[in-house]
Write a structure and sequence with these properties.
This protein is an alpha+beta fold and 489 residues long. The chain is built from 17 helices and 25 strands.
Length: 489
């Protein structure tokens, strides 16, 4: 391959993905390394951080063979907490983002000590299972011997940057999800709280995603077979790299990511806070976000496939045949608790209306509709917070096939743009890398392929079902909480 290319790699929940992209946006090669998440106890989700570098090396060697790689972009799931010692050896497995709900006691303590309103005002978000700062506090409280060895904080993207360039650095967006350690108004760590909550940790200097982190070291070149000295970008959290991959980073835009979990990122020109949402800084300077995320979405469809068997395409066909309302089924998609706007780690999945006549297609349809209702709940909350959503751009593997995106547009009553390339965060990271070495426009790289428009009759029917959906959680929450207390895995 004689043309210059950029390498983009994203470390995700269920896999690491790499792409080799020409400087005009043409996808040349792609590769995936699947991996599993460790679940050592109820509400605990972890991963060995060393795996992130191992899979990056494998992807780089496979994709970069005989290619003229001129820059590298990285991203990863987040916010995660990987604590390492002074020799950059992890002291324990990385604690994952909001799906990990272990820090409930630390959240309650920090709210008492610092004040919930003060935390939201300074940090942009309420403390929740998404808050990386509370998870650092959990390690300090529950594993003091391991914590005493910790000196640095990493997330997947910054871990890769350290291995590639030797730079210890984190992007502003990722830092803004380390609530309550970061001050959104000052765009910097809030040292009084950081020194109290994360004593002994040398918090990384902060830069913006897409800025140069450094160049590939000789050691990293040996391990990856990439050219020594090529530039590497500051990375960021996967959902924000995904938003960049489809051009959803302007004020008024909402990126809707269809994946293992569902993520929503609405860009605003000023900082906003609201209970039940995450207020963060954006991926680019001068932007802010109201963000939301579901604990499960595609994870439920994968669970159903594992239970019932069959290929995804077959299940989608059966779900399509089931029709609006899934033959009288209604589901709460809280199978791993719920993040925004419910913010309830003890919430649980509910399937209401089951009879002996229901099929796997009905259940699959109910799962797709449940995620659509949850998306609408998040969008309504963002608008209540003052968000001005003028354009929705869909991205991720769930956009393939068309049924899921159609259901979401019908439930929300809003169109969705689908771009030509929906690979996701790895493509967005490659785009940022390309901007380091030349001119690159995402509208040229990744033009709009089609528009998913809501169907008026379906919108009317889903309005009625949405009212029932909103009643289902408060009607069953007490029972779900009691059952959650009896669950051991």
């Amino acid at each position: 391959m004689s043309v210059p290319v950029v390498l983009g790699v994203d470390i995700g929940t269920s896999s690491s993905k790499g792409v080799l992209v020409g400087l005009d946006g043409t996808l040349m090669r792609s590769a995936v390394r699947e991996h599993a998440v460790d679940c050592p106890g109820p509400g605990r989700f972890e991963m060995d951080g060393r795996l992130w570098w191992e899979e990056f090396r494998e992807l780089a060697r496979e994709l970069g063979q005989d290619a003229e790689v001129v820059a590298v972009g990285v991203s990863g799931m987040g916010p995660c907490v990987l604590l390492a010692d002074s020799n950059d050896l992890p002291v324990r497995p990385a604690i994952l983002y909001g799906v990990d709900t272990r820090s409930t006691a630390q959240i309650a303590r920090l709210e008492r000590e610092l004040g919930a309103e003060e935390i939201r005002s300074r940090g942009g978000s309420d403390l929740s299972s998404q808050a990386a700062g509370a998870k650092i506090a959990w390690v300090a409280d529950e594993e003091p011997e391991l914590y005493s060895k910790a000196r640095r904080l990493y997330m997947p993207s910054s871990w890769l940057v350290r291995r590639l360039t030797g730079a210890y650095v984190l992007d502003h967006h990722s830092a803004s999800q380390c609530t309550p350690l970061y001050d959104v108004g000052r765009l910097d760590w809030h040292r009084p709280w950081a020194d109290t909550i994360a004593p002994g940790i040398e918090l990384p200097p902060l830069r913006w995603p897409g800025e140069p982190a450094g160049t590939l070291t000789r050691q990293a070149a040996r391990e990856t077979d990439l050219p020594e000295g090529i530039p590497v970008i500051i990375g960021t959290v996967d959902a924000w790299a995904e938003a960049l991959s489809v051009g959803a980073h302007h004020p008024g835009d909402l990126m809707l990511m269809y994946g293992t979990t569902m993520f929503l990122v609405h860009t605003t020109p000023e900082h906003r806070t609201w209970p039940g949402l995450w207020g963060t800084v954006g991926a680019l300077p001068g932007t802010y976000n109201l963000a939301g995320g579901m604990a499960t979405s595609g994870a439920i469809t994968a669970w159903l496939r594992d239970l019932f068997g069959g290929a995804y395409q077959e299940l989608l066909q059966e779900a399509d045949a089931s029709g609006i309302g899934a033959n009288g089924l209604l589901m709460l998609p809280y199978f791993a608790g719920e993040r925004t706007p419910v913010m309830d780690p003890q919430a649980r999945g509910v399937i209401a209306g089951l009879t002996l006549s229901h099929t796997r297609g009905d259940l699959y349809r109910a799962a797709l509709e449940a995620t659509g209702f949850a998306v609408r709940h998040n969008i309504e909350t963002m608008r209540a917070a003052g968000g001005d959503i003028r354009r929705i751009v869909a991205v991720g593997g769930g956009t393939q096939g068309g049924l899921w995106t159609q259901i979401v547009s019908d439930i929300t009553g809003t169109p969705q743009e689908v771009r030509a390339t929906s690979i996701g965060a790895s493509y967005g990271s490659a785009f940022l890398a390309a901007r380091l070495v030349g001119e690159a426009s995402i509208d040229t790289w990744n033009p709009v392929r089609h528009l998913v428009t809501p169907r008026p009759d379906a919108v009317t029917q889903y309005d009625q079902l949405y009212r029932l959906y909103r009643q289902l959680y408060p009607s069953t929450a007490g029972i779900a909480h009691a059952l959650a207390g009896r669950q051991h895995r």
